[in-house]
Amino acid sequence: MTILVTGGAGYIGSHTVLYLKEKGESVVVLDNLVKGHRQSVLEEVPFYMGSLNDEQLLNYIFQTHNVDSVIHFAASSLVGESMKEPLSYYENNLGGTLSLLKVMLKNNVNRIVFSSTAAVYGEPKNIPIQENDPAEPTNPYGETKLAIEKMLQWADCAYGLKYVALRYFNAAGADPLGRLGENHDPETHLIPIVLEVALDIRKEVKVFGDDYPTEDGTCVRDYIHVMDLADAHYCALQRIRKENKGGIYNLGNGKGFSVKEVIDTCREVTQREIKSVNSHQRPGDPAVLIASSQKAQEELKWQPKYTNLKDMVTHAWNWHLKQTGMAQTSI
Ligand code: UDP
Prior knowledge:
By secondary structure, this protein is of the alpha/beta class. The protein has ten helices and 14 strands. It has a seven-stranded parallel β-sheet with strand order 3-2-1-4-5-6-11, with helices on both faces. It has a three-stranded mixed β-sheet with strand order 12-9-14. A two-stranded parallel sheet has the order 7-10. α5 (140-159) links the parallel β5 (111-117) and β6. Residues 79, 170, 188-190, 193, 205-208, 219, 221, 259, 282, 285 line the site of uridine-5'-diphosphate.
């Protein structure tokens, strides 16, 4: 029996595919390669380039590979872009998931692990955020993810579809062995941008807002290692397989780091000067996002391993250095 990983050539998807293979799972990947990279998926893993909206292709994959579970990453996932192109977010994220669910039901597949996001909470009412806190997204990206969670819930009621929705906080780091890393084009995420400054690929990093109501005035986020996220997907699938139960879970470390602290950690790890300049706030950015992941730890039996920001930055840095052919830093 095989796990279909949609979006398996993207950042979190490709690390999860690697992790699943290490666990001895049979995996097939579908990715449209708009943001993902073919070389991020192991050669030995069957790979299809295509769209989730192509139900014929999906059907073919389910039948040819004997798919019995799905881990669903494929989505448009940039907050800023979603503010500018909301309809394409509805089309890709909701439309793609709808056709995926239809094909799952047609093939009697009823297990899915879904990539949701902390963006479903919008401006949080409580810190740390718990799963039953109000979900009021402030951008179309978060809205589409929340709508999909609800679609899954109703599909469970009607058809017994078992799902786990994982609300990630800020994914960071890279495979500790340096085989994979974060490679977006264009890059919008803080840590890879700061590391690109350290590598002289960029002149400076802009700090989006230094007048937030936080200790140093910059936004605070909960960074979670990409391999811990990969492990959480595996744990989630095991819960559905063994207990036939799903649920909604936050994935974070329960600790917040400000933008300034992240930049300082990057300076410490890289031992390079990193120029930063203060800039205006980015629309839709809440001041503080910190997760309570207690529910995931208890019910999914998930325990994050790389909780130290320095380790996350070191793994990311090693991968960046490898891309440029330079030596690595040890931890
Ligand atoms: N950020 C920043 N400069 C950048 C990119 C990001 O100051 O060039 C800030 C951003 O405002 C947020 C934090 O860094 O507070 C993390 O942003 P990122 O885009 O990495 O992840 P997000 O929180 O949007 O998922």
